[in-house]
Amino acid sequence: MNKTLLIASLLSTALLFAHNAAAEVDSARQNELLYFIKHDCGSCHGMTLKGGLGPALLPETLSAKPKDYLVSTILEGRKNTAMPPWKTMLSQDDAIWITEQLQNGSMQPTKLAKGRQAEGKQAKGKQ
Question: Which of 4, 51, 74, 111 minimizes the number of CB atoms within 10 Å of its CB?
Answer without folding.
Answer: 4
